[in-house]
Design goal:
- The protein has 64 residues and is mainly alpha-helical.
- It has one domain.
- The radius of gyration is 11 Å and the shape is globular.
- The relative contact order is 0.14.
Length: 64
C-alpha cells in the first residue's frame, strides 16, 4: 500500500506537483518514515531547504 502511495506521489511530481512532493517528503522525514537518502535526487535540494527553514537537519531533528 505504501509503495503504491509513493508511486502516486512521484507521478504528482512529474505532473507539476513538485511543491506537493517536497512537502510530503519533508513530512515523511520529520515523522521518521523516510530518510533523506531515500528521497529522489531531483527533490533533495528543495527538501533540504524546507527542512532548514523549519530549523531541522536532514535527519528531521532540530539543528543544534
Amino acid at each position: 500500500m505504501l509503495q503504491r502511495i509513493w508511486i502516486w506521489l512521484i507521478f504528482l511530481c512529474s505532473k507539476g506537483g513538485e511543491d506537493t512532493m517536497v512537502t510530503v517528503c519533508v513530512s515523511l522525514i520529520i515523522n521518521g518514515r523516510r530518510t533523506f537518502e531515500q528521497i529522489p535526487g531531483n527533490l533533495q535540494e528543495a527538501v533540504k531547504a524546507d527542512l532548514e527553514a523549519l530549523g531541522l537537519g536532514t535527519d528531521g531533528k532540530p539543528l543544534a
